[in-house]
Design a protein that fits this description.
By secondary structure, the chain is an alpha/beta fold. The protein contains 10 helices and 9 strands. A 5-stranded mixed sheet has the order 6-5-7-9-8, with helices on both faces. Strands 2-1-3-4 form a 4-stranded parallel sheet, sandwiched between helices.
Length: about 270
């Protein structure tokens, strides 16, 4: 089985292998030995060192188009399923309507998984401008407001742009930051903690942090990218074993006809 992980920024070639090696660490813990994951960065778009650009809706929209193009390319290359390396699930809904392979977003997959592990969950996101509103909209979009604890979307104490270089050298610092906020969430009723950032998930998995013990009780801490990849793997197994349509090809997810595909993409100067 081949899974595609689309990265939301351009990445220098010399950085792809070290980055994916770190990400692969979490996949190796849960995916079957025969499942291969390939990292596919977008070919052009926002740079990894300019994460604050994603808070501008227009810039994010331009980047999302490149993410969808990456999924289209992966679908043509024969990948079985895919996910994206971002809790915002950028491009997932749009790409589902034009590619044949199943796609799973880290936010959607992890929030629904959390509902099966406990009654109430909390999300700890990256401390960046615009994130509170974006994550809140995701929770509402999936109808999960009642499963979120009061004030259930919280953030690391320091800005992500300041933390990232330090955490890259010492992932345990990320764990320490997350643990402080997670304990507050558990005290307020969270049964499950969702890491609402692909970067935070990466560092916590590198450090082996996936649960928190509070007053003798064990609380799961979910790596959102890991959950999405496992969900994608499971969907492929079900699809291959039963012929179940994944996703459902109804309403907005009906694949366009070849004529419509050529007509619309040509209108925007995209290769048909």
């Amino acid at each position: 089985m081949k899974l595609c992980l689309v990265h939301i920024t351009e990445m220098p070639n010399e950085f792809i292998d070290p980055w994916f090696s770190a990400v692969k660490n979490s996949f190796d813990k849960v995916l079957q030995p025969g499942t291969e994951v390939m990292l596919k960065p977008i070919k052009q778009g926002l740079k990894g060192d300019n994460v604050l650009d994603f808070d501008n809706p227009y810039f994010a929209m331009l980047d999302k188009r490149e993410i969808v193009e990456a999924f289209i390319e992966a679908d043509k290359e024969g990948f079985d399923a895919g996910t994206v390396h971002c809790f915002g699930d950028p491009g997932i809904k749009e790409a589902r309507s034009v590619v044949r392979m199943p796609l799973f977003g880290p936010a959607e997959a992890t929030m629904h998984f959390a509902c099966q592990l406990g009654r109430r969950f909390a999300i700890i996101g990256a401390s960046m401008p615009g994130q509170p509103g974006q994550i809140s909209e995701q929770v509402q979009q999936h109808g999960l407001q009642d499963r979120l604890i009061p004030n259930g979307i919280r953030f690391e104490k320091e800005p992500f742009v300041d933390c990232f270089p330090k955490w890259l050298g010492n992932p345990q610092l990320c764990v320490d930051s997350v643990t402080e906020v997670a304990r507050e969430c558990v005290a307020d009723g969270a049964d499950v903690i969702i890491l609402g950032c692909a970067g935070t998930s990466l560092f916590c998995s590198m450090a082996g942090f996936n649960k928190l013990t509070v007053n003798g009780q064990t609380v799961p801490v979910l790596d959102c990218v890991m959950v999405a990849a496992k969900m994608a793997e499971m969907a492929v197994d079900i699809k291959k074993g039963t012929g179940l349509p994944i996703p459902a090809r109804t309403a907005n997810y009906v694949l366009p006809s070849e004529d419509d595909w050529v007509r619309i993409r040509s209108a925007f100067g995209l290769p048909a």
